[in-house]
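Exercise: predict the fold of this chain.
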Amino acid sequence: MTSTINPTSTTFDPSTFDPTTVDEARMEELAGRIITDVGATVSAGLVYLGDRLGLYSGLAEGPATPAELAERTGTSVVYVTPWLANQAAGGYVEYDAGSGQYSMTPEQVLAFVIEDGPAFFPGAFQLALAVLRDVPGFEDRFRSGAGFGWHEHDAGLFEGTARFFRPGYVANLVDSWLPALDGVVPALRAGADVADWGCGHGVSTILMAQAFERSRFTGSDYHEASIVAARRKALEAGVQDRVRFEVADADSAPSTQYDLITLFDCLHDMGDPAAAARAARAALRPDGTLMVVEPAAGDHIEDNLNPVGRVFYGASTLVCTPSSLSQPGAAALGAQAGPAVLTGLLRDAGFSRVRIAVQTPVNLVIEAKH
């Protein structure tokens, strides 16, 4: 059964449009971008399948024809054949016309096979597909301004988000971000109390626990299903002796004082980020540190009109803003709030020392102290 799209009528009358105002060169450029985006949208599903079915890891073993890859992975050659062609057209795998074989470069293996590496991308596609499944539910929200809670999303979003952010945390958290904070690494090595608020599946919590065996870690999130997954992952990682996970809101009163509180890519999702910042300050010991990791952004829209900004504005529209609107406060900060807004929010919460500790093309790492 097909559905009919009936857009809300507007004041624009298509009959008044003058086609002679169209610049042909600009039109061709725009059409090319659109075709690229359509191809990328369709290909997201194929990346997901390649990840789930082991097609990338199978091809990483060595060059193969479609029949050979199907044999390696226990899949059907009639599907593998166009899948490989699509991947080659997108530059995700290589094709040799002489031999009829496909292969992967080391860079492609790193991007699509090495899940514990610094540049693994299938999780991003998994996240995108999960969000697209929820799109029909946003038509009414766009009209009403109502929220769409994190817990309301397709379950693939939760796992996809963890897999999307994990490579950046693996590459940077222990070796770069924590060392950039004043006195934090020595405290962690000696033994500190750490709270990771908005921890999701616990990727950041577990990575810190693996690196600092003398410290104690508490991960919390309001989403119970994510906490269940985090507890399982802690057991798998063998850090259950120094990590615990609990269901709690970020602005709830903690029972412990902490040396370090972390907020990884979640402050902007909260209904009342200012209240969360005040709660963090209250929960820190006098010499403690708040670490806020947020998506990289400039302070103005024109600073963010680039591929990274495009990704995060899209996430803001379909995940971050609706999540905030579903909570008390409904601040709708968005994933591209920018350093001026973020640091100002922390100063207003009572932190006297606030600085950008690290800035990368993808992340802002902010340090705040009493």
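Check your answer against the key: The chain has 14 helices and nine strands.
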